Amino acid sequence: MSETSGIFQGRSRRAITVFASGVSVVGTSFAVYGTTREFVLIAASRTALDILPSSLVASIIWNFGDLSFSLALLVFGIALAGVTGAVSYAGFRAGEQLVEAAPNVGGMVLSLLAVWMFVAATVWSPLAAVLPAAAGTIGTGLAIARSTDDAEQLATPADRRAFVKTLAGLGAYNVVAHAVGFVQGSGSQTDDLSTSSSASEEGSDPVDQRLGTAADRSFDIEGMTGLIDTTDSFFTVDINPRPPAVEADSWALSVTGNVETEREFTYEELRQRETMYRFKTLRCLGDPVDGDQIGTALWTGCSLMDVLSEAGVNGSHAVFRATDDYYYSMPVSMLSDAMLAYGMNERQLPRQHGFPVRALIPNRWGKLNVKWIEEIEIVDQSESGYWEERGWNGMGTVNTVVKIKTSNRLSDGRVQLGGHAYAGTDGIRAVLVSLDGGETWDTATLSDRLPDPDTWRQWKYEWQPDRSNYTIVAKAIDGTGTEQTRVRSDPLPDGATGWSRLDLNVQL
Ligand SMILES: Nc1nc2c(c(=O)[nH]1)N[C@H]1C(S)=C(S)[C@@H](COP(=O)(O)O)O[C@H]1N2
Ligand SMILES: [Mo]
C-alpha cells in the first residue's frame, strides 16, 4: 500500500463513504424541500432546539444574529450528514451479512430501509423521505460495492480510481442538489399588491399614496432608513432556520374553539374584505437598547376582530397558532384594533415576514405578531406562548426606546446625530440629547408623525464641535408626558430599558 492511498483505506475510507452518502441524504432532502415542504435538517434542528437548554437556545437566537444561526445550521448539517451516512453504512453492512448470496442487493435494501425510516421519523413524513434515502443508499452502495473481496481495502489502483470517481460523482450531484434547493427556497412571493385591487390609476393607489406621505415626512440622514424600512432592510426574528413556505391557494385561516360557529377563511376571502392600511412599528422583546431589531412598514390587510366576530366569540382568550408550531395566547380584549396583514409596503407579505398572513397587534412586543398564522382558537382562560415557555415575559405594552443610529460630519463641519424613537401607541413627544453624559440637555428635531399611532419618529441633532470627546446620552418623553426610565436592564425577561449612550470622538 502506498503512502498517498492511505486515506482510501480502512477507517478513513469508511468515514469518507459515510460522510459522502450522508451529505447526499441531506442535499437531496434540501433539493426536494420546495415540493415536500419537509427538510430533514430543519426538522432535526428543531428537535435539537427543543432538547437543548432553553437559555442556550434563547441566547443563540437573540444575541448572535443571523450569522451564528447559519453557523449553527452548518454544524447541525455536518453532524446530521454523519448520522444519516452512518445509518446507511450500518444498514448496508448488515444487509450484506443477511443476504450472503447477493450481498450488494441485501446491502442496498437494508440501507434504503434504515435511512428511509430515520429520515421519515425526523421529518414525520414517509413520502418526503423516499428520495433522500435513495440518494444516500446509492452513495453508500457505489462507494462500497466497487471494492473487491476485502470490504475495507481498495486493493488495486483501478479500485482507488473508481472510488475517487464515485466521490467526484457524489460531489457533483450534491452541488446540483444544493443549487436546486437554494433556487426553490428563494422563490418568494413578491407580487405587487395593487395588481388585484381596483385602484390602478397613476398616483391613486392607496398604498403608493401613503408611502409617499411617509417619504415626505422622513428625514434624509446618511446611514439610516427614513420612517419606512424597505422589505429587505426590515429585521426578521424567526424560530426557524428557514421561513416556512406556505401556498396561499391551499391555505385557510380557521377560527375554532369557543365560538358560535367554527369558520374557515381562505386567502381570497380575506383579501376581498374591507381593506385596512396601517403604519406600524415592530420591535422584538430581545432587542437591546442599542440593537437593530426594530422596524416600521405600511401593512395592508383586514380587521382581525371583524373576522373573529363573524365566527362569534364566546371565550376570553385567543390562541394564535402558526405553521411552524409557534403560538401565542392573548386576551380577546387586546385585539380590538388588531389586523390580519397580507401586504407589506407595496408588495404581498414576503415569506420571511409571514406569507400568506400574519397578525399585527398594536402597542405590543413583536413576538405577539404571529406570522404564518393558521388557526385562531378561542378559549376560556389564558394560555402561555412560545417565549413564555422559554423564560421571557413581556405580555404588556412596549418599552420606550431611543436609537442612536448614526453620526455624520456635515460639510459645514457640524456633527449630526440621527436615529429613531418609539413608545408604542403613546407616541413620542420629544427626544432630548445630552453631549456631556447627562448634565445638560437639549431637544432634538423630530420628524412629523406618521398618520397611525403605533409608530416611531425620526430625530436628529446637529452642533458645531469645540472639543473632541463627547459622551452622548439620549432619552425620550412619550406622548403622555412620561420621561423614559434611566434604569438600565437587559432584554431578558421584560425587554430592555434605559437611556441610550454613545462615546463619540470628533476630529477637530
Ligand atoms: N410563526 C412565527 N411568528 C413569529 C415568530 C416566529 O418565529 N414564528 N417570531 C416572532 C418574533 S419574536 C418577532 S420579534 C416578530 C418579528 O417579525 P418580523 O420577522 O416580521 O420582523 O415575529 C414574531 N412572530
Ligand atoms: Mo421578538
From TrEMBL:
Pfam families (UniProt xref): Mo-co_dimer (PF03404), Oxidored_molyb (PF00174)
Top-rank taxon: Archaea
Give the Moybdenum cofactor oxidoreductase dimerisation domain ranges.
Answer: 408-480
Report biased composition (Low complexity) as residue ranges.
186-201
InterPro entries reported for this sequence:
Ig_E-set, MoCF_OxRdtse_dimer, OxRdtase_Mopterin-bd_dom, OxRdtase_Mopterin-bd_sf
Its transmembrane ranges are 15-35, 47-65, 71-92, 104-124
Alphabetically sorted, this entry's keywords are: Membrane, Transmembrane, Transmembrane helix
Q: Name the SUPFAM superfamilies for this protein.
A: E set domains (SSF81296), Oxidoreductase molybdopterin-binding domain (SSF56524)
Where the record annotates domain Oxidoreductase molybdopterin-binding, the positions are 244-387
Region entry Disordered, spans: 186-211
CDD domains for the chain: SO_family_Moco_dimer
One GO MF annotation is: molybdopterin cofactor binding
Q: Is Membrane among this UniProt entry's keywords? A: yes
Q: What is this protein called?
A: Sulfite oxidase
Native source species: Haloarcula vallismortis ATCC 29715
